């Protein structure tokens, strides 16, 4: 990873701001925790405009991946489109990630509320599945 990655992040955010359907940008993982190491990748989550379907999100993800590689001068990144991310992953990013940019605060709040509501609605079932899985593999911690 280039040593100037921290210098490139504001440039990346500035470029992402010019894309109309990019509603919010989060950094998560080691970069959000201030623990970026030479072998770390850059973890970036993007919330697209409300109502973006899966097909459009996939197309946008491919274009955004090219932009990230150009601006960061590395392929060592993970890009997550929050609109289509698994619920538990989206919840964790929203909870622990670092918000770098938001275009429409109301859309972000609505998305966050939806994710938290669904996460909490299904938490009991996830916890039960996790317990059964651990029991099935012989883990009793």
Automatic annotation (TrEMBL):
InterPro entries: NT_sf, Polbeta, TA_antitoxin_MntA
Ranges of residues in domain Polymerase beta nucleotidyltransferase: 15-105
PANTHER family: NUCLEOTIDYLTRANSFERASE
Recorded coiled-coil stretches: none
Protein name: Polymerase beta nucleotidyltransferase domain-containing protein
CDD domains: NT_KNTase_like
């Amino acid at each position: 990873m280039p040593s100037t990655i921290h210098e490139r992040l504001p440039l990346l955010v500035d470029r992402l701001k010019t894309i109309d359907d990019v509603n919010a940008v989060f950094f998560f993982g080691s970069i959000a925790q201030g623990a970026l190491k030479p072998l770390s990748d850059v973890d970036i989550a993007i919330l697209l405009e409300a109502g973006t379907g899966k097909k459009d999100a996939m197309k946008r993800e491919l274009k955004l991946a090219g932009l990230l590689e150009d601006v960061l001068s590395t392929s060592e990144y993970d890009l997550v489109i929050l609109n289509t991310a698994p619920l538990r992953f989206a919840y964790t990013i929203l909870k622990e990630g670092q918000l770098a940019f938001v275009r429409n605060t109301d859309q972000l709040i609505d998305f966050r509320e939806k994710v938290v509501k669904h996460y909490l609605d299904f938490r009991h079932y996830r916890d039960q599945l996790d317990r059964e899985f651990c029991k099935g593999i012989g883990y009793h911690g």
